[in-house]
Structures are given as C-alpha cells and as structure tokens.
Amino acid sequence: MRDYLNDDYTAIWTDSEEEYGKILEFMGRFQPKLVNRVKLYSKETPIFEEFGIQHELDKALRPKVWLKSGGYIVINHTEALVAIDVNTGKYVGKGSTRLEDTIVKTNLEAVKEIVRQIRLRDLGGIIVVDFIDMEERRNREKVMIALQQALEQDKAPSKALGFNEFGLVAITRKRTKQALERVLCQPCPYCTGSGMVKSIPTLCYEIQAEARKMAMEQEEPNLTLRVHPEVAKALKTRESMLIDELEQTTHKHVIIQSDATLHWEQYDIY
Fold first, then answer.
1. Whether the Cβ atoms of residue 80 and residue 126 lie closer than 8 Å to each other
2. What is the torsional sign of CA 209, 213, 216, 220?
3. CA-CA distances (angstroms) from residue 71 to 108, 109, 116, 127, 251?
4. Is 178 exposed, middle or buried (0-12, 13-18, 19+ CB in 10 A)?
5. At a CB cut-off of 8 Å and minimum separation 6, what does 95 contact?
6. How far is Cα 192 from Cα 232, in angstroms, rounded to an integer?
C-alpha cells in the first residue's frame, strides 16, 4: 500500500474487520493523513460487485475489448512481448465519405482504451500496437501525439517509439509486477498454454492410424474407439469413410463409444 497510495485515492475499502484493523495501524504509522479514508465495507452485496470490480476483471481477462464506436482491440500475450491489434469492426463512420476519417477516429479512440488496458492489466516490457493503416502522415502524427499524451498519465515509466516502416508502434513500459493475466490465470490444461488443440479431422486420422496398429496386435473381432463426443460425431458422419476403410483393412467391426469425460484430444482403443 505504501508504494501505491497517494492523495489521488478518495477511499480505501475492505470487507474484512481483521484487515481493516491492520490497514488502520499501517496508515497511522506511515500515512496518517490518509487514515480517515480507510472504510470498512459491511453490505451483503460482495464488495467486488458493489464497486463493479468483478465486471472489470472479467473484461480485463478477455483478449477482445470493444470500443464505443463499434471498433475493437485484441490483446495477446507472448513470451517476448504483448501484441495489440486495432480493428474498425462494426464502425463504418457517420456522415463521413472518407475511409481515412473513419480509420483515424477509430485509432484515436483505441489509443485511450489501449493505455487504459495497459494500466488495468499491468502490461509491461515491450508492447507492439498494430494500428489500422493510415495513408496521410499528419494522421499518423496525430495518433502518436494522442498516444504520448495518454502515456504521460501512466505512473509507470513508459515510452512510445513511433510508427515503423510496417505501420507498427512499439511501447516500452517498465515492468513493476506481474501482469494481471499471470496473477489471476494459469496455463490451459487442455492446450498446455499454446492456445491451440488438434482439429477434428486431424484427430480422426490420428485415431485411424493408431487403430490400425492396435488391430494387428488383437485377435478379437471387435475394435472399440472411446473418444470425445465431438470426435465420435465426426467419425459417424463426415469422417465415416475413415471407419469404413479401417474395417476393410483390419477385417474387424469398429465400435465408436462416446465419452464426455475425455479430454478433446484423448482417446482409448481396445
């Protein structure tokens, strides 16, 4: 609290009596002039809901952020940097016949939201922004000025490096703590953090290949494939020729068993 609190804060709320006492004691020792701003929350409504924090947290964990005009930005984390893409989306301009005007307006609106999201999500390191391409140099300068002014309100040291030859803008921001996504989330157990899983056709061909090998080792007349429901559906419909081919080559009757408890990519053959 000592590192973040200043006169800009109008109140400090907590819903824990124990924490309330600790905060009062801490503030009395280190920032006595702010003691009166410490409040104990006692309503039945959860404190995060009361102040709209839960809603903002939910939005801050999504990659896509909508702009009021109908455009949107997409924020993606990688090991090396954070990439932010700006799109016009549903916004086509109002009363303007020039596409350039629509693009500039969307980019300027995106600037404010990008800086807000950078602060809200605690994004640090290298941040690369792909604004919508603007043909006129003066418009690119207008967007850069707006970005630099918005970054001046950020307490963490940051710098915008300007448009490069590919139309990208790099922002460097001092990393003071872990990004919000890293604090509140964990790698996906399904895709192991890659953001991708195998497609249905890929899985079907993989299962057929494995089943062929299994069939050579078994003497039973039946071959059972226990798979995820979506994979089972595909094997019975659009990928059914794989099952026909499997039965013809192995001379076995193939039984497809759907199991909703299985991981998308998991399957058993017996």
1. yes
2. negative
3. 11, 9, 16, 20, 57
4. exposed
5. none
6. 23
Query: CA–CA separation, 243 vs 240, rounded Å?
Result: 5
- Mean pLDDT value across the chain: 91
- Residue 131: DSSP 8-state: P
Could you give the CA distance from residue 146 to residue 270 in angstroms, rounded to a whole number? 63
Closest CA to 191 of 264, 95, 262, 257: 264
Domains and CATH numbers, the chain: 12-47 (no CATH), 53-184 (3.40.630), 200-269 (3.40.1260.20)
Specify the pLDDT at position 23. 93
**Tokens representing 213?**
């090998």
Token pair 């109008």 is found at 10
Is there a contact between 176 and 235 (Cβ–Cβ < 8 Å)? no
Residue from 116, 129, 126 nearest 172 by CA: 126
Residue 66 main-chain phi, psi, to 5 deg: -80, 145
Closest CA to 71 of 85, 84, 90: 90
Q: Which amino acid is at 154?
A: D
Residue whose structure tokens are 């609190």: 5
Q: What is the DSSP string of 37-52?
A: GEEE---SS-HHHHTT
pTM above 0.90, yes or no: no
Q: How far apart are alpha carbons 115 and 155 in whole angstroms?
A: 12
pLDDT tens per residue across span 135-160: 999 999 999 999 999 999 888 899 99
> Are the CB atoms for 227 and 263 separated by under 8 Å?
no
Do residues 9 and 37 make contact, with C-beta atoms less than 8 angstroms apart? yes
Q: What phi, psi does 35 have (nearest 5°)? A: -60, -40
